[in-house]
UniProtKB/TrEMBL annotation:
Alphabetical list of InterPro entries matching this protein: CDPF1, CDPF1_dom
Name of the protein: Cysteine-rich DPF motif domain-containing protein 1
Family: Belongs to the CDPF1 family.
Pfam families (alphabetical): C6_DPF
Amino acid sequence: MADDKQQHDRRVFSCTTCDFTVDYHYKGRKPPFANCILLHEECYVLKDPFSTSGGFVTVGGLCSMCNRDVCLSNGCSLFYTQRFCTNCSVKHIQEFPHELQQEIMHKLKS
Ligand SMILES: [Zn+2]
Ligand SMILES: [Zn+2]
């Protein structure tokens, strides 16, 4: 990791499952630039560049089991009371409700 130092004051989110990488502005549940928003989970948040009223975009979160960074795309994680990466959701598939199990199986096939 030769460019470790350069990244020190830049906050970069990168998904551990796909190649998605993006600079983010805030990590947590209450983005300071958004008005009175409390997110369901700790997220990586970007200010929405097109918004003048505190808009934001959530780009990623943390798997509640393995603590890895995962993006919010369907292929990488799912949210069921907490966020789970695809790996963990497969490992613990028996603990999810039936509809979600089907969704997870469906993901695996695609
Ligand atoms: Zn991803
Ligand atoms: Zn996980």
